[in-house]
UniProtKB/TrEMBL annotation:
<dbReference type="GO" id="GO:0016020">
    <property type="term" value="C:membrane"/>
</dbReference>
<feature type="transmembrane region" description="Helical">
    <location>
        <begin position="70"/>
        <end position="89"/>
    </location>
</feature>
<feature type="transmembrane region" description="Helical">
    <location>
        <begin position="37"/>
        <end position="58"/>
    </location>
</feature>
<dbReference type="Pfam" id="PF04140">
    <property type="entry name" value="ICMT"/>
</dbReference>
<keyword id="KW-0489">Methyltransferase</keyword>
<feature type="transmembrane region" description="Helical">
    <location>
        <begin position="101"/>
        <end position="119"/>
    </location>
</feature>
<protein>
    <submittedName>
        <fullName>Isoprenylcysteine carboxyl methyltransferase</fullName>
    </submittedName>
</protein>
<dbReference type="GO" id="GO:0004671">
    <property type="term" value="F:protein C-terminal S-isoprenylcysteine carboxyl O-methyltransferase activity"/>
</dbReference>
<dbReference type="InterPro" id="IPR007269">
    <property type="entry name" value="ICMT_MeTrfase"/>
</dbReference>
<keyword id="KW-0808">Transferase</keyword>
<feature type="transmembrane region" description="Helical">
    <location>
        <begin position="131"/>
        <end position="149"/>
    </location>
</feature>
<feature type="transmembrane region" description="Helical">
    <location>
        <begin position="161"/>
        <end position="182"/>
    </location>
</feature>
<keyword id="KW-1133">Transmembrane helix</keyword>
<dbReference type="GO" id="GO:0032259">
    <property type="term" value="P:methylation"/>
</dbReference>
<keyword id="KW-0472">Membrane</keyword>
<keyword id="KW-0812">Transmembrane</keyword>
Length: 218
């Protein structure tokens, strides 16, 4: 099961995220007047609940790249802004696009990204940490989706908020998702450097035959 500290963080984060979105949309009545947004909230809570059944943690393990902790602050700041601003611009009809069909597309993208984010967490088990760290008994996983891309969870991390932005028809939300590339790429580089130092030629060979996020592109 998920570590208590990680569970508290995930649960509190989910509540704050939804409260900000509902407030920005103009309150509960305004929010639930859009069925896709209700589905978005249900999906968000379901994915959060699903994370409680993983072994995700915040352990620094045997060795951690502490210099990479800045990305957690960046993720947090962009995340809070993304919770509020897309819903607010939706209510103000500022830089918005499409209608209810677009909202449903956003919900589908959000769910797909959430599943892609969560699935590798189940695969990695206790090796998955919110920090860039080598865990006790750490071994490379190179099968399944990891045989194609090295960072499927980070791809899900980008697709998930993109779906959120689309559900609120928010151009600014999409821009915020693009900004997530900065800490995400920083995180990937730090993680790959640590894994290379730990596993040497084994990781070098794995890296040579796979892509980081998008097969054949990056």
């Amino acid at each position: 099961m998920i570590a208590p500290k990680f569970a508290l963080s995930a649960g509190a984060g989910a509540i704050v995220y939804l409260v900000l979105a509902v407030a920005a949309e103009g309150g509960w009545a305004a929010y639930v007047s859009h069925p896709p947004l209700v589905a978005l909230a249900v999906a968000f809570l379901a994915l959060t609940a699903g994370s409680f059944f993983t072994n995700a943690n915040l352990s620094s393990g045997e060795r951690e790249d502490r210099g990479n902790r800045w990305v957690l602050t960046a993720f947090g700041i962009i995340g809070l802004i993304s919770a509020f601003v897309p819903a607010y611009t939706d209510r103000q009809d500022f830089w918005t696009f499409g209608g209810e069909t677009v909202r449903w597309i956003g919900v589908a993208v959000f769910v797909a990204g959430g599943i892609l984010r969560l699935w590798p967490v189940f695969v990695l088990g206790r090796r998955f940490s919110g920090l860039v760290a080598i865990q006790p008994g750490h071994k490379l996983v190179t099968t399944g989706i990891y045989s194609i891309i090295r960072h499927p969870s980070y791809l899900g991390l980008l697709i998930n908020p993109l779906g959120w932005a689309i559900a609120f028809r928010s151009t600014i939300g999409i821009i915020l998702t693009v900004l997530l590339l900065i800490p995400t790429i920083g995180r990937i580089r730090s993680e790959e450097a640590l894994l290379l130092s730990q596993f040497g030629s084994e990781y070098e060979a794995y890296r040579a035959r796979t892509s980081r996020l998008i097969p054949g592109i990056y």
